[in-house]
Amino acid sequence: MERGAREEILGRLRKAPRTTVEPRPEMPPLRELSLDREEMVAIFTEKLTAEEGAVYRVGNGGAAVARLTEIAAEEKLERVMVSADEVVAPLDLPRWGEERGITVFTPGDFSDRDSFRDAVFDDVQAGITGADYAVAESGTLAIAHDARQPRLVSLAPVMHIALVPVERMVAVYEQAVEKIYGDGGDIPSQVTFITGPSMTADIQGRPFKGMHGPRRLVVILIG
Amino acid sequence: MEIRTTIFNEVAEREIRNPYARLFLKAMPAVIAKRRTVVMGSFPDPVAAQACGQSIRAEVVARLPDLLEQFERNALERGAKILWARDAREACEMVLALAKERDVSYVTKGKSMVTEEMGLNDALADSGIEPFETDLGEFIAQQLRRPPFHIVGPAINVPVEEVRDLFMEKIGMEKPTTDPVELGYAARLFLRDKFHHAALGVTGVNMAVAETGTIINLENEGNIRFNKASPRTQISIMSIEKVVPTMADAMHLIRLLSRNCTGQAISAYVSMDSGPKGAGEIDGPEELFIIIVDNGRSRIYADPVAREALRCIRCGGCLNLCPVYTKIGGYPYGWAYSGPMGQVLTPLLLGLDRTQDLYRACTLCGACREVCPAGVDHPSIFLYYRSKDVEGDRGLRGKRRPWWESRLFGLWGRAAAHSALWNLGVRVARPLVNRYSRGGVISRMGGFFQGWFRSRNLPVMAEETFHERWRRLRDEISAGGPKGEA
Question: What is the value of pTM for the model shown?
Fold first, then answer.
C-alpha cells in the first residue's frame, strides 16, 4: 500500500510544471564569526544567563570537580546520574561521590531501559553530562547522544549540570553542526541543542521554568 | 478535530465580545511582535536574513520531489522506516496499526499541526488507545476539545479557573489553585508518569533535512524530547513540504523560526534525529517511523500560484500582526491553522467551497507578507483564491457564482470599457443612488445592495462628472472667458 502511495505522490509532484531555483541572495556573515574565544565565552555566558542558566568558569578538571562539590552541597544532592562521555568520564565522579556520600549512577549500571528510566525519572536529583559544543551566538549547548551520552540524563532529572571544556566553544550553530555531521559518514542518532531550562508560558502567558524537563541548568566551563 | 470553517462569521462575532480572548489578543501578539523585531536585530542585516530564509523555502517548493527522495534515501540509510500516506485517513490508519501491533494502551504526543489536520487524537481514542498531548497548552486544548487559539499558545486565553476545574476533574490535581505555575506543575506531575512508562511517542517534524535524512523538532518544554527518548517506538509525522535541502539551511531556518514564533533567538530545545538509537544506547527509540503525509498537497503542487503556500513553516509570525486575527483570535478559523497562515493553508486542504470566509476575512494590508520568513505572499494568494472560487475552479473546489452574477459583471465590464455606455450608466444611476444620501454619505440602500454597506459607506455621486464639467467650462471659455465656478 505504502509503495503505491509513494509513487502516486512523487509522480504527481514530478508531473507538475517545473520552476527554476534562484541562487541564494547574499547575506552578510554573522557578527559572532569575528569573536575570539574569550569574547565567545563572554557572549555565551551573557546569553545563557539571560535564559536563567547559571554559568561558571573554572581553570581545569580538578577545579570543575571542586565546583561540583560546592553545587552538590548547596543543592543537597544525594543521588545523581552521570553520563559516561569523554568530558565527565575522566573525572571519575563515581569515586568522587563515594568520598562524599553521594550516590553516583552511570548508564552502565543499568541493564535495561526500564530500570534506567526508573532511576532518571524518580530516583536521582540531578543529571551530570559533558557537552560536545557550546555555541556563543545564543548561549546554546550542543550534545550528541550515543551509548555514553543517553538522552534522558540531561532531560528527566530536575537539575542538569553540564561540563564543557572551553576549546569546545564555537561561534555559531553551523560550526557545531559541521563538526558533528562532518562528511555525513558516522553521525549520531540524536543531537540536542539546549538553551536554558525547560520552559513554558502556556497558561495565561505566565512564563516559568521546569515545565517537563529540568528546572535548573548549570554549565561549568573548563579552561 | 471538528471542522468549523463554515461558521467563521458567527464565531468571530462571538469571540470579538469575549473578554478573556480580548485580554490576550491585546497583549500577547504585540509583545511577541516587538520581541521579534528586537531579536531579528541580532542579524547584521535582518532584511537579508529574511530574504535568505525566503530563498530556502522557494527552493524547497521548486525542488520538492527531488528533496523528498533525497531525504527518504538518507533517512532509510540511517535506519528510519519511511511510510507515505495519501491522506489523513491513511496516515491515521498507519499510526493505529503500529500502535496495535505493539499493544500500547496510550501514546504520548508532541505538538504537531499535521496530526491535528489528520484528526489523529480522535482516531486513536476511537480505537481505544488514549492519546495524551504533552505540550501544556495543547494538553489543555485537547482536554477542553477546542481548536488552538494561537499556534504558540493554543490555550493561552483559557481562564485559570477553568484550567483549575479541568485539572481537578481530569488529572487528579489535589489542591485547588489558580496559580499558573502550580497548575503547570500539576500537569508536569501527571504527564511525567506518562513519559516514564511510555511505549510509543508521536511527534511532528519542523524540518526534514534531505542532505542527512535528519528530522528536527523545536520546542521549549522538553515534551518532544521525552517523546523521542523514553519510548521504544517513535513515530514522527511530517507533511511533504517540511523537507529542507541542507543542515546549514536548517540552522538558518531555526534562527528565523524561533525569532518569528516566540521572539526567542532559539527555542530552549532543538532535537535532531538521524535514524533510531544506535547500538548500546539505553534510551531513544529502537524503531523510528517517519510518516510522510500528502493529504492533497501534491495536487495543489500542480497549481503554480497555490503551491507557494507550501513555503509556510508554521512560525505564526503572521498571526501577531494581522489586524483581523488580533481582534478575533484563533477559534473563528475553525481548524488546525489560524490567522493568515490558516487562511492560506486551510482553503487548499479543505477546498475553497468550505472556507469561503477565510480568504475573504482580509483587508489585504500585507502585514503578514512583510514578516513572513518563508516568503509567502498572502494577499496575492487570497486574491487568487477569490478569483478561483468565483470561476468555480474544479481542482481547488471553487463554488462558482450563479449565472446571473457573472452575466451582471460581464455587462458591467463591457459598459465600463465603452465611454458612451459608461456615461449613460452614470446619468441613469446618479438620481437612483443619490436618493439614499444622508449628509453626502450613503450608508444604506436596502434590498439587494444592503450587504455591501454592512462595513462600508459610499460617497454620493457628484452632480457633474469631470467630462460634463469640462464640457461646460470649455463652452463658457469659448463664449468669452471663464466666469469661475461660483
Answer: 0.93
Contacting residues of A for B58, CB less than 8 Å apart: 21-22
pLDDT tens, residue order, chain B (486 aa): 789 999 999 999 999 999 888 888 998 899 999 999 999 999 999 999 999 999 999 999 999 999 999 999 999 999 999 999 999 999 999 999 999 999 999 999 999 999 999 999 999 999 999 999 999 999 999 999 988 899 888 999 999 999 999 999 999 999 999 999 999 999 999 999 999 999 999 999 999 999 999 999 999 999 999 999 999 999 999 999 999 999 999 999 999 999 999 999 999 999 999 999 999 999 999 999 999 999 999 999 999 999 999 999 999 999 999 999 999 999 999 999 999 999 999 999 999 999 999 999 999 999 999 999 999 999 999 999 999 999 999 999 999 988 898 899 899 999 999 989 998 999 999 999 999 999 999 998 878 888 888 888 999 999 998 988 999 999 888 887 655 554
Cross-chain residue pair A16–B302, CB shorter than 8 Å: yes
Residue of B nearest to A17 (CA): B302
Fold classification of A38-200+208-222 (topology level) = Rossmann fold (3.40.50)
Straight-line distance from the first to the last Cα atom of chain B, in angstroms, rounded to the nearest whole number: 67
Q: Which residues pair with B235 in a beta bridge?
A: B202, B289
Quote ipTM for the complex.
0.97
Which residue in B has a C-alpha nearest to residue A213's C-alpha? B222
Domains of chain B: 1-42+310-400 (no CATH), 48-295 (3.40.50.10420), 403-478 (no CATH)
Q: Hey, are the CB atoms on B282 and A147 less than 8 Å from each other?
A: yes
φ, ψ of residue B109 to 5 degrees: the values are -130, 140
Nearest to A12 among B43, B278, B301 (CB): B301
Q: Which residues of B touch A20 (CB under 8 A)?
A: 62
The residues spanned by each domain of chain A are: 38-200+208-222
Q: Are strands B106-109 and B200-203 parallel, antiparallel or unpaired?
A: parallel
Looking at residue B248, its amino acid is A
Q: How far is B221 from chain A (nearest CA, A)?
A: 5
Chain B partners within 8 Å of A116 (Cβ): 282-283
